[in-house]
Amino acid sequence: xxxxLDTSDGRTWFKPxxxxxxxxxxxxxxxxxxIEVRLFWYTSGKGSQDVGIxxxxxxxxxxxxxxxEFSIRVPEAPYSFxxxxxxxxxxxxxxxxxxxxxxxxxxxxxxxxxxxxIT
Length: 119
Fold this sequence. Notes:
The protein has no helices and ten strands. It is mainly β.
C-alpha cells in the first residue's frame, strides 16, 4: 500500500480563510471501501487529548491506483499554538477505509508562519 499527500505549492502554512489545494495519491494491492482526505486539529500535552475533524472529502470505491485533487477552506479558528501544558496542531490526512492506513501532512494555521506561543 502506498499513500502520498501533497499541497499543490508545497506550502504547509495557511492563514485562516485560505484555500488548501493539493493532491492525494494511492496504490493498493486490493480494493478498499473508500479513501478520505481529512482536515483536522489535535491537542497534545498534559491532560486528555482532543481531536476535531473539520472537513472530510470521501471517495467511495476508488480504483486500486489513482489520485484525487482536493480543495479545503481553512477555518477562522483555532490557530496552531504551543504552550507549557498543551499544544494544538493541524494536519491533513489521507485515510484508507476500513483498514485505517494513513498518511499525514502536518500544517500550520495562523496569521504568521509560526505557532502562536502561549507560554
